[in-house]
Specification:
There is one protein chain. By secondary structure, the chain is mainly β. It has one domain (1-53). It contains no helices and three strands. The protein has strands spanning 4-14, 19-28, 31-38. Strands 1-2-3 form a three-stranded antiparallel beta sheet, with no helix packed on it. The protein is elongated and about 55 Å long.
Length: 53
C-alpha cells in the first residue's frame, strides 16, 4: 500500500508578476507529487469512514 505522509497547500504571492495563487501537493512514498495550481483557496475538510463487517 502507498504511504501518503503529507498533504500541503502553499499560498504564493508573486509580487514581480502581480499574481496570487495556491500550490497543492502531497508527499507519497517520500516523493513530492504536484496536484495543481489554483487561483481560488481550496477548502479543506476531514472525513472519517469506518467499515464494520
Amino acid at each position: 500500500m502507498d504511504k501518503i505522509t503529507e498533504i500541503r497547500i502553499e499560498e504564493t504571492f508573486d509580487l514581480e508578476n502581480d499574481q496570487h495563487y495556491y500550490w497543492i501537493y502531497y508527499l507519497k512514498n517520500e516523493e513530492v507529487k504536484i496536484i495543481g495550481k489554483s487561483s481560488v483557496k481550496p477548502q479543506c475538510y476531514r472525513q472519517i469512514a469506518r467499515y464494520v463487517k
